[in-house]
Design brief:
587 residues, alpha+beta, Glutamine Phosphoribosylpyrophosphate, subunit 1, domain 1, Rossmann fold, six-stranded antiparallel sheet, 14% strand
């Protein structure tokens, strides 16, 4: 769905997205008035009239109008209509309307977003902001400067005044009189399923997710690099697809993605392997000063967009219109250190053993590790303790989230604003789950889905739809269901996926335990585009808004320290976003 505007019958249409893709469309409400307005690719929008009710699925799926009518048989309310599509493979928004009002929901990972202003809803915050004339919220921008990202729910909130975001586990319900309310629609599954059973569930969910991307016989592209994307490539081959495997060669001489990809392509047999040489792929920070994509929020994806789009263009050159990527696999299948605290409740011996391994690997102090492990502060208290100062990478990573920090070039006024907002949010903020490890798992998933969403939006202009099966609802539920002992061991690399891909991946690839590191590419990109970065500092719109000190940023770029480029991502995300025509003027 490329920026549709979802509306109640009394709504008013808004402007098109600034990077239009797809065909304009309109779906009428039972009253005859416009209900859905947007731009969709062929096959993305399916709707059905069910008596006085209307049901729509917008996104990647294989649903037909007859399917909607069959699945929704017996549903009477708008919420029941939405619930009738639960568990269907793919990634899509669900919108329902009936005599009792309207219901709208996105996806559980947060890849499919829902924003609203009163009864007016859409999947892009900037479109809604344009409709109601809402400007950019400088305080929200200041919070977005926190590295590595702002804590939940701050990174989820829009950067426009008067626009609200619906949580992934909620749906927006609008009464006939236009009154909106949010309703909880999902509770994450308890992590109690045996690893063998969960692996079967995950494999079946991933296979179904791959199967609905494109029609049988279509040319399908798939990234072929790490274990996550290679698994998708293997499932596509097993599904009988003509697969183009895309491998981008890193400038890091220690990166072993290519030999593993060559092994996978050779063993799978039915893969056309497209290798993109290191000197043929744009480095990070390329085209940073040419913000061609009108994202609806600041995104660090702009740093890596050029290389990502280059791979999508290679896919298009082979006739592929869909590209599978492994985004979401790390967040779902790699154990965050804080997950050991969740494991302490059910398997304390394993958790203590794993914490000892982590303490040794990360060189955490024994006292600091014990203090962090037995920290019982509730979420609000932890949030209030954040100041934006300090080293975001220091100490045991066992809190409710990363100890987010502000870069040295953030202005004193902006720093004070962020501290105040953190204190204010602490009074009412609640975690995604009342468990540090499980909360962190979901928060990381939502943050990763946001960045993936932006790259997928950018890829649309190449004619290629980026598909992210790991972010589909059914896959998310399968991955979250496994007993924690089956995913939390630091000794094993993505054990649940390795188990799920038995008889799917070639055995050598299934037991791979390495992952590419992109830091060298980022450093080389920073060196190559140093002039562009300095120019952004010299003409900074963030500085014009009083959020950063341009001279301090220039000094850091001229003589970078160990943390400079770690801290830089969120600053450049906001700076590049403000330079998109219209954003910097909307105050």
């Amino acid at each position: 769905m490329a920026g549709p505007l979802l509306r109640t019958p009394t709504g008013v249409p808004g402007p098109r997205p600034r990077t239009p893709t797809g065909v304009p469309g309109m779906v009428a409400h039972a009253s005859g008035r416009p209900w859905l307005v947007g731009r969709w690719q062929p096959g993305e929008a399916v709707t059905a009239a069910i008596g006085p009710n209307r049901l729509a699925a917008l996104g990647e799926h294989r649903l037909t109008a007859d399917d909607l009518r069959r699945l929704a048989r017996g549903a009477r309310t708008a919420e029941q209509l939405c619930e009738s599509l639960r568990g269907q493979p793919g990634s899509f928004h669900v919108i329902a309307a009936g005599p009792d009002g309207l219901a709208v929901q996105g996806s559980l990972s947060g890849f499919r977003r829902v924003y609203h202003h009163g009864p007016l809803a859409g999947d892009r915050a900037d479109v809604l902001a344009a409709v109601i004339g809402a400007g950019v919220d400088d305080e929200a921008l200041a919070v977005r400067l926190l590295s590595p990202f702002a804590p939940w729910p701050l990174f989820w909130n829009p950067v426009f005044h008067r626009i609200a975001a619906v949580r992934p586990d909620e749906r927006l319900v609008v009464a006939p009189d236009g009154t909106p309310r949010l309703r909880r629609r999902w509770q994450p599954p308890a992590p109690t399923v045996d690893p063998g059973e969960a692996a079967t569930w995950l494999r079946d969910a991933l296979a179904a997710a791959v199967a609905v991307r494109g029609a049988p016989g279509d040319v399908l592209a798939s990234d072929l690099s790490g274990m996550d994307s290679t698994s998708l490539c293997a499932l596509a081959v097993r599904d009988g697809r003509h697969v183009i495997g895309l491998t981008c060669v890193s400038p890091d001489p220690l990166d072993d993605d290519l030999p593993w990809a060559e092994t996978a392509a050779r063993e799978l047999g039915k893969v056309t392997h497209e290798v993109i040489a290191g000197d043929a792929s744009p480095l990070p920070y390329t085209d940073l000063h040419r913000p061609a994509d009108g994202f609806d929020e600041p995104t660090a994806a702009v740093m890596y967009r050029a290389g990502f789009l280059g791979a999508s263009r290679r896919a298009a050159g082979h006739g592929a219109r869909v590209r599978l990527t492994g985004f979401g696999g790390d967040e779902l299948l790699t154990a965050d250190p804080a997950l050991q605290l969740s494991l302490l409740r059910t398997d304390p011996r394993a958790a203590i053993r794993n914490l000892r391994l982590l303490r040794s690997a990360y060189r955490w102090g024994r006292t600091a590790t014990l203090r962090a492990a037995f920290d019982r502060r509730p979420y609000g208290t932890w949030l209030a303790s954040l100041t934006g100062d300090g080293d975001a990478g220091a100490g045991p990573m066992l809190g409710w989230g990363p100890p987010a920090a502000l870069a040295p070039w953030v202005s004193p006024d902006a720093r004070a604003t962020v501290r105040r907002i953190l204190r204010e949010q602490a009074a009412s903020a609640t975690p995604l789950l009342d468990d540090r490890g499980l909360h962190g798992r979901l928060a990381g998933l939502h943050a990763g889905a946001a960045a993936a969403r932006h790259l997928a939006q950018a890829s649309r202009r190449t004619g290629v739809t980026v598909a992210l099966p790991y972010l589909d609802d059914a896959v998310v539920e399968a991955a979250l269901s496994v007993r924690l002992a089956g995913v939390a061991s630091p000794r094993q690399y993505k054990p649940l996926l390795a188990l799920a891909m038995r008889d799917v991946l070639p055995e050598p690839v299934r037991h791979r335990s390495t992952k590419a590191d992109t830091s060298i590419a980022a450093l080389r990109g920073a060196d190559e585009h140093r002039g562009t970065l300095l120019d952004l500092a010299d003409r900074s719109q963030l500085a014009d808004r009083g959020l950063i000190d341009a001279a301090a940023l220039r000094a850091a770029l001229t003589a970078p320290g160990d943390r400079t480029f770690y801290d830089l991502d969120q600053t450049l995300a906001a700076e590049a976003w403000l330079r998109v025509p219209g954003n910097g003027d909307a105050r």
